[in-house]
Amino acid sequence: MTNLWISIRYILGGKSRITHVLSQAASISYDSLIISLVIAFVSAAVIAIQVSKQFLMSGAEAYIGGSIAVVMIREIAPGFVALAIGARAGTAISAEIANMQVTSQVDAIKTLKVDPVGYYFSPRILAAAITVPMVVMLAEVIGIAGGLLVSHATIGLHPARYIHSVWLWLNARDIYISLFKAVVFGILIALVCATQGYETKGGAKDVGESTTKAAVLSTVYMLSADFIINLIFYL
Questions:
Q1: Residue 200 burial (C-beta neighbours within 10 Å; 0-12, 13-18, 19+)
Q2: What residues contact 22, with CB distance under 8 A and at least 6 apart?
Q3: Per-residue DSSP letter, 75
Q4: What does pTM read for this prediction?
Q5: What is the pLDDT of residues 106-143, one digit of tens each?
């Protein structure tokens, strides 16, 4: 938490360069965009396959679109996108900072009287907090569209009925909560992975261990945060 407050003060002090933030935004979210959208599409397609025939047999096919939309927006999109970004970009953050640590680049920054935590952490945290929700929004749209395609292909559900169900079930509150989750997850990914990299001591073997630990810890913290947020907003 100390590193987070240092980074926040660094950001509020206007010390984070926009070029650094944009560079990190590209490496964190843009480079993970395709895999995130593929995961969202496949997840929605699998859900549609699982529920379509059961809903059809019970005469509830009009609820398929709404059910898929709610599941995608509340859990699948923010959760799976965060896991994908954590696995790809989070480990890269940890490895990059760990390499800087073991090659004494961090010590060189300190000799210039620059706070290494603020310098390395703040652009990554800010970029993740801004761009992860953007990827989540795209994933929600792609996931709902994937459910539509699969529902039409498997049980012949008319797209108009699917979309009508989505609009009936869609709730602005769920969208806001999913974006809030995305912000929290993005901050956790950047903070946890950067911290693990920053605390690395030793050589190349320790860099690998820190990267693995960063992936595991970021996943645990994200799932814990997801549980707490659901308790607060949906209990």
A1: buried
A2: 127
A3: I
A4: 0.91
A5: 888 888 888 888 888 899 999 999 999 999 999 999 99
